[in-house]
Write a structure and sequence with these properties.
This protein is of the alpha/beta class. The chain has seven domains: 173 residues, 3-Layer(aba) Sandwich (Rossmann fold), CATH 3.40.50.10140; 152 residues, P-loop containing nucleotide triphosphate hydrolases (Rossmann fold, 3-Layer(aba) Sandwich); 64 residues; 81 residues, Winged helix-like DNA-binding domain superfamily/Winged helix DNA-binding domain (Arc Repressor Mutant, subunit A), CATH 1.10.10.10; 155 residues, Ribonuclease Inhibitor (Leucine-rich repeat, LRR (right-handed beta-alpha superhelix), Alpha-Beta Horseshoe), CATH 3.80.10; 134 residues; 176 residues, no CATH class. The protein contains 31 helices and 42 strands. The chain has a 23-stranded mixed beta sheet, sandwiched between helices. The longest helix has 23 residues. The relative contact order is 0.04. The N terminus and C terminus are likely disordered. It is an enzyme of class 3 (hydrolase).
Length: 1163
């Protein structure tokens, strides 16, 4: 939920923390009049209530002490003051000084001074008549040298007499008067009594309260239902209670219903009605009638906590019409669906605490401090990581570790890795118990086997079991048992997953062979080494982090007892001998590194749906034909000993077949050619395949990969293959494309890179395909490149097009390659054009006019010196990649697009940067990026300093200003990044620090119009990175106050570089802190195998940081003060004469021998 930080609101006002008073009541009285009588009785009654903390001066101050400072402090730290004005009150200068201080401290408050006229007339007090007149006559004589003091006392009496209070003469007895006073005090103190008044640590609660404030909108008069949902233990009840305590005093009727799951409907109705109805309620029907009649004309606050059934809301809060104007009904639940069914549209999900808040809460419980004690930090982080920010678990574990030594901590952590904490388990299991049997089964399957898997894939796998899972997945998400991340992966909170595993563990604590599901290494090894498998086991998943060879006692005979096994997955387990038996009940079989040469002879898995055996030792799957009507997925990738595929006749419903890098594969069974259900066929890297159908008629085929099948020719395609959209056929034995390719009317992507056997550019048949969107070719052809009109068949292409010709036009002779572009009508939909490494020395001047839809332009590794000015006319361009264009000297004017990324790394000759186009304004700027890594020619040239400074100025003034003051802007993406060689940070960045962090002091006025933070980081290159292992370099800017990490990704650099970036205010959380600390962590990635990249920390890479809090005035200075800036900056230039053309306004991002910097711009 986006929160505005630019204006205050009533909803925000109540959400702020209430003042913290040391005392609820300060008693001011004349001791000789009331100490032993009225005041002592009043004090006793206030103390009896226990919730009141009362300051009574003769109890709190020692005789003879210097009371003035302490007394003043006590008054200032008190919420209310009860002033007992008795006949002799004014005769005490102490009392009068006390009263003057009370008036001074509390006059501005909301009726915080409560006068009691104890047998004195309020008029006498107001006008100092009667006994007060006599006393003041004496004061005027005694303090004749200080008349202001006497007047101050008079004014204090006048003001207190004008306040609403109690006249003792109007009450029959003192007890009646005391009761009235205590009642009023309770009304005023009650709203300030919150959980934060106790020792309870409420971390991160203020931000959540502001979220609630936006939904509650107390100033609005409509009736509102507000929902708070989230997993158990995340703090829903705590938040609801705190909201109730802060606003309940504003309602005529206020009721908090907790633990409603455990109470009857009638009992709940009675609790609500007890505030307005004296009659008893006998059944829920009668209670419903009374609720609707009694509350419809009252402003009601009702909190219904932990609702698990719509029946509860139907009997307690069915409809808005039940409640009077301005009513608020707050519902907390673990089930989002319940809110949807009750049409509660105003709701938000309460999520877990971030790592910093979690550590603070845990530390408060474990140490009664905000940070861990010395020696406990790393262990504390382990516990925080384990609970993943769940407040309930943090409290339980932190409390259990209070005042325990390191050994106890280590022991507790070890126990947690073996099983869930009992109290946490009990709380989380409530959500599980609310599921039906099928939902429970699916939940446990996901917890054991499918976390981290794409949602669509999970649905596909579970449907293999015959489950109707579409609705069930949504139910589990709504009940906060499952999550779906930004990448559509299914996940769950770590403690929820641990709860699921504990449920299964309790099926048989001592014998894992009697449990339904197994995923723990030790449990699985126990079952197979002790041969204790049983029919209870339905699923086994063993995924080891690295290759591990099983002990010789591993016994695959254990499978013979698992008659109900449906799911089996082994990964990275090396077994010396394979199984002689596998259960026919298997539905999913995944066995990486399968040891045997074939599947067991008696294995007849008629219901098998997926067979996945990459890196297996298989020579063949089975002999002859097998009838597997349910098998849809087969993966034998990298099974290097596989000689031939099985007969596919008995597998009519196969949809995906993966045979990549099966080096020994020679024959693909011809029955594959007529499989009508197959959608994906991959044979990439199968260099020895000789037997492959010369013609295929797979009507459902969508994807075909023959990459690297150097002995196979691209087959002829049947007329019915309308669904084939992607063909990857690089490095095949084909001398030309088959003419039947014209049958592929759905073809959108064709890849024929490294086609050494290809005699000529593809014939015109391919260019007749109206559906074709992407054509990618690389390597050299024997012919010259085709004319553009040949590629597009002379007709207009309506669909979105992507074209790449990497290295296609290389030549040994120095003759440059020039391309003539067609008219815009021929290419209205071309979105991507890749001409990397094509030996281009000239880019057509009219490129900006001929490609109106172009979004990505890749021109890496070419030989042109400059780009044509028409580039700025590419109004939809988002990426231009010019890396390793060694002869490029200057960038052109760039388009004024809302998003634009320019990559010009390793351009050795680059000396000048472009300026943003002046033809258009960045009115909708979202993101701008410019990378000139390793372009050291920029350092000694005047264009770098003035160019980047000008770019910052133009981007700020033309783009950032109107966008970032808008509440509708994208708070996450709106920013810019510039990376270039350099080692100096300009003095314009008024916050500077050595090392990898800096702290920004926020303005005291939170409503001030600051727009964001501009920072500049100096970072060093890696020392001698291995070019064969090195991949990406990453710098992450992190802070607990920002919504997500702000990072820089790039390839390797040589020498120091600068990263200048803008972080908009919307990306920074609305915080109550007076400062924000930012830190930068550098990492690089090295290859750890064929596909895996390892993240390696890079210490001391970030050398220095600079930052500036950006205001509107800064933008005006940057835009309008150019002349003054130039003059002012000249005063701070080095004494050496500037080189010709070197502008004195340069930001110091050049080499170390040129230190020309700007002093801070003054408003």
């Amino acid at each position: 939920m986006a929160l505005s930080t630019h204006r205050a609101s009533p909803s925000r006002a109540w959400a702020e923390s209430p003042p913290r008073w040391n005392f609820d009541v300060f008693l001011s009285f004349r001791g000789e009049d009331t100490r032993t009588g009225f005041v002592s009785h009043l004090y006793r009654e206030l103390q009896y209530r226990q919730v009141f903390k009362t300051f009574k001066d003769d109890r709190e101050l020692k005789i003879g002490a210097i009371i003035s400072p302490k007394l003043a402090s006590a008054i200032e730290q008190s919420h209310l003051a009860i002033v007992v004005l008795s006949p002799n009150y004014a005769s005490s200068t102490w009392c009068l000084d006390e009263l003057a201080k009370i008036i001074e401290s509390m006059e501005a408050g909301d009726e915080r001074i409560l006068p009691v006229f104890f047998y004195v007339d309020p008029s006498d007090v107001r006008h100092q008549k009667s006994s007060f007149a006599e006393v003041f006559s004496k004061h005027e004589v005694k303090f004749s040298n200080d008349p202001k003091k006497v007047e101050q006392w008079r004014e204090a009496l006048r003001k207190v007499a004008n306040l609403s209070g109690w006249d003792a003469k109007n009450y029959k007895c003192e007890s009646e008067l005391i009761e009235a006073i205590v009642k009023r005090v309770w009304e005023k103190v009650r709203p300030t009594i919150t959980l934060s008044d106790s020792k309870e640590k409420l971390v991160g609660i203020e931000f959540r309260l502001r979220q609630m404030g936006l939904l509650l909108a107390p100033e609005e008069k409509d009736v509102r239902f507000i929902g708070i949902w989230g997993m158990g233990g995340v703090g829903k009840t705590t938040l609801a209670k705190l909201v109730y305590q802060r606003i309940s005093h504003d309602f005529e009727v206020a009721k908090l219903l907790v633990d409603v799951r455990k109470r009857s409907l009638v009992d709940l109705q009675k609790q609500v009605l007890s505030l307005v109805l004296k009659e008893n309620v006998w059944d829920d029907y009668e209670g419903t009638i009374f609720l609707e009649k009694c509350l419809s004309n009252k402003r009601v606050l009702l909190v219904v906590d932990d609702v698990d059934s719509c029946d509860i809301l139907e009997k307690v809060a069915l409809d808005k019409s039940w409640f009077g104007e301005g009513s608020r009904i707050i519902v907390t639940t673990r089930d989002k669906r319940l809110l949807t069914e009750r049409r509660i549209e105003l709701s938000f999900e309460l999520v877990r605490l971030n790592d910093n808040d979690a550590l603070e809460l845990f530390s408060h419980k474990a140490f009664e401090k905000d940070q861990p004690e010395e020696g406990f930090l790393e262990l504390s982080k382990c516990f925080v990581d384990y609970v993943e920010g769940l407040p309930l678990a943090l409290k339980i574990l932190g409390s259990s570790l209070y005042k325990r030594d390191l050994k106890a901590w280590e022991s507790t952590l070890g126990k947690l890795k073996k099983g869930c904490d009992a109290d946490v388990f009990k709380s989380l299991k409530i959500s599980y118990e609310a599921l039906d049997d099928m939902e429970k089964s699916i939940f446990l399957d996901i917890a054991f086997f499918y976390t981290g898997v794409k949602k669509g894939r999970v649905i596909e796998l579970l449907q293999c079991y015959g489950f109707d899972v579409l609705i069930v997945i949504d139910v589990l998400i709504e009940k906060s048992l499952l999550t779906i991340d930004l990448y559509n992966n299914v996940g769950m909170h770590g403690l929820v997953q641990e709860m699921a595993r504990e449920i299964v563990r309790r099926e048989s604590r001592e014998q894992p062979g009697f449990r339904s599901r197994l995923c723990h290494r030790n449990d699985i090894f126990h079952v197979f080494m002790k041969n204790t498998g049983t029919k209870a086991i339905k699923g086994i998943r063993l995924c080891l982090p690295r290759l591990e060879e099983a002990d010789s006692s591993w016994n695959c005979e254990c499978f013979s007892k698992m008659h109900n096994l449906m799911f089996l997955e082994f990964d990275n387990l090396i077994i010396s001998s394979g199984p002689k038996f596998l259960p026919n009940s298997l539905i999913i079989l995944k066995w990486n590194w399968y040891p045997s040469k074939s599947l067991p002879a008696g294995f007849r898995p008629n219901i098998l749906a997926e067979l996945e055996m990459p890196r297996s030792n298989l020579v063949r799957l089975w002999d002859g034909r097998q009838d597997l009507p349910n098998l849809k997925y087969m993966d034998l990738t990298m099974s290097k000993n596989l000689k031939e595929t099985p007969d596919f006749t008995g597998i009519p419903n196969l949809e995906k077949l993966h045979l990549g890098y099966c080096d020994g594969l020679v024959k693909v069974h011809p029955s594959i050619a007529v499989n009508k259900k197959l959608k994906r066929l991959t044979l990439y890297g199968c260099e020895n395949v000789k037997v492959f159908p010369s013609k295929i008629e797979m009507d459902s085929l969508e994807f075909l990969s023959l990459d690297g099948c150097s002995r196979v020719k691209i087959p002829e395609f049947g007329e019915g293959m309308k669904n084939l959209s992607q063909v990857l056929a690089s490095g095949t034995a084909s001398e030309e494309l088959p003419s039947s390719i014209e049958h592929l009317v759905g073809l959108t992507y064709l890849l024929i890179n490294d086609s050494k056997s290809l005699q000529s550019f593809p014939g015109t048949a391919i260019f007749k395909l109206k559906s074709r969107r992407e054509l990618e070719m690389s390597g050299e052809t024997r012919d010259r490149p085709p004319a553009w009109r040949q590629i597009f068949g002379g007709s207009s292409m309506k669909r979105k097009l992507y074209m790449g010709f990497t290295g296609l036009f290389k030549r040994k002779s120095p003759e440059p390659v020039c391309l003539a572009l067609p008219s815009p009508r021929a290419l209205p939909s071309l979105r991507l054009l890749s001409l990397d490494y094509c030996n281009l020395e000239v880019i057509p001047d009219d490129i900006g006019y001929c490609l109106p839809s172009l979004e990505w332009l890749h021109l890496c590794g070419n030989n042109f010196v400059s780009l044509p000015p028409s580039i700025r006319c590419l109004s939809k361009l988002t990426v231009i990649n010019l890396r390793r264009c060694k002869r490029l000297q200057q960038l052109p004017d760039l388009p004024s697009n809302d998003e634009l990324s320019v990559f010009a790394d390793d351009c050795d000759s680059l000396k000048m940067l472009s300026k943003p186009s002046q033809q258009g304004r960045f009115t909708e700027l979202v993101y701008f990026r410019l990378h000139t890594v390793n372009c050291f020619g920029l350092i000694d040239n005047e264009g770098l300093n003035n160019g980047i400074f000008s770019m910052l100025r133009r981007l700020a003034a033309q783009g950032i200003s109107p966008v970032f003051l808008s509440l509708s802007c994208d708070r996450f993406r709106s920013s810019f990044d510039i990376v270039s060689p350099g080692s100096k940070i300009s003095e314009w960045f008024d916050i500077q620090s050595v090392g990898d962090s800096f702290t920004v002091e926020l303005p005291p006025d939170r409503e001030s119009e600051w727009m964001g933070i501009v920072f500049c980081v100096v970072f060093a290159s890696l020392k001698d990175p291995d070019p064969l292992e090195f991949d990406d370099f990453l710098i992450e800017c992190s802070s607990p106050e920002i919504y997500r990490e702000h990072d820089l990704r790039m390839k390797s650099s040589m020498g120091d570089h600068l990263w200048v970036s803008f972080m908009p205010r919307g990306q920074i959380q609305d915080t109550t802190s007076c400062s924000i600390r930012f830190s930068f962590d550098a990492h690089y990635y090295k290859f750890c195998g064929r596909t895996k990249a390892c993240r390696i920390p890079c210490s001391n890479c970030v050398k220095r940081c600079g930052a500036r809090l950006l205001y509107e005035q800064d933008l005006k200075n940057l835009l309008d003060g150019t002349t003054n800036i130039l003059k002012r900056s000249r005063e701070y230039c080095d004494s050496e004469e500037a080189e010709p053309g070197e502008g004195p306004s340069a930001i110091a991002i050049g080499s170390s021998n040129k230190e020309s910097v700007l002093k801070r711009l003054k408003a």
